[in-house]
Amino acid sequence: IAGVGKIIGYNVSHEWIYGYVQRDKLCGGKLYKQLRQSHRRYRKGNRAKRVIIPNRVGIEHRPAIVNKKKRFGDWEADTVLGKQGTGAIVSLVERKSKLYLIRKVPAKSAADVARAMVGMLWKYRGCVRTITADNGSEFCD
Q1: Among the listed ranges 18-27, 34-43, 113-122, which one has the minimum average pLDDT value?
Q2: From the CB of residue 77, how many other CB atoms can be counted at a distance below 10 Å?
Q3: Which run of H or E residues covers position 131?
Q4: pLDDT score recorded for residue 129
Q5: Which residues lie closer than 8 Å to 114 by C-beta, 6 or more apart?
Q6: What's the confidence (pLDDT) of residue 95?
Q7: Is 6 helix (H, G, I), strand (E, B) or coil?
Q8: CA 113 to CA 140: how far, in whole Å?
C-alpha cells in the first residue's frame, strides 16, 4: 500500500498504515482480518508505559565522596538479560575495590532482583553505604 501510494501521490508510511488498522480494530473494525498475519503485533501503542520509580533520587544527588572512590561500601547495580528471556544476571560492583558480586535470577522482575541483591549484600551489610542503579523497573523494590 505504501509503495502504490507513492506512485499515485499519497505519501504514507507502513507505520501509519498499521496504526490506522490498529485504530480500526480497536473501534470494532475488521480491516486487520485482511492482513497476511491477522494476529500481527503492532509496534506503536502496544507496549506498557514506563514504570515510574517511587521515591526516586537522581544521580546528581549522590554524595560527592562516591565519585572519588575513596571509601568501601558504595555499590553499583545492573542487570544483564539472558537470551530470549531465559532469566537475567544481577551484578553488584563495589566502586573502590572493584569487588564483583553476581547472581542469576529467573526473571527480571523487581521482586527477584531485590531478593538477589539483599542475598548478595547480606555478608557486607555492615558496610553498605550507597547503591546506585539505573532507572530500570527491575530496581523498583
Answers
A1: 34-43
A2: 21
A3: strand 130-132
A4: 94
A5: 141
A6: 93
A7: helix
A8: 9
Question: Left, alpha or beta for 87 (phi > 0: left; psi -120 to 50: alpha)?
Answer: left
pLDDT band for position 102 (50/70/90)? very high
Provide the terminal-to-terminal Cα distance of the chain, rounded to the nearest Å: 47
* Residue ranges of domains in the chain: 2-34, 59-139
Residues 6+ apart with CB under 8 A from 116: 90, 103, 105
d(CA 53, CA 39) in angstroms, rounded, equals: 33
59-139: CATH topology: Nucleotidyltransferase; domain 5 (3.30.420)
CB 130 within 8 A of CB 66: yes
Residues making up the chain, counted from first to last: 141
pLDDT computed for residue 105 by the predictor: 93
Which residues are CB-contacts of 115 (< 8 A; sequence separation ≥ 6)? Answer: 105
| Nearby residues of 53 by Cβ (< 8 Å), 6 or more positions away | 135, 137, 139, 140
87 backbone dihedrals φ, ψ, rounded to 5°: 110, -170
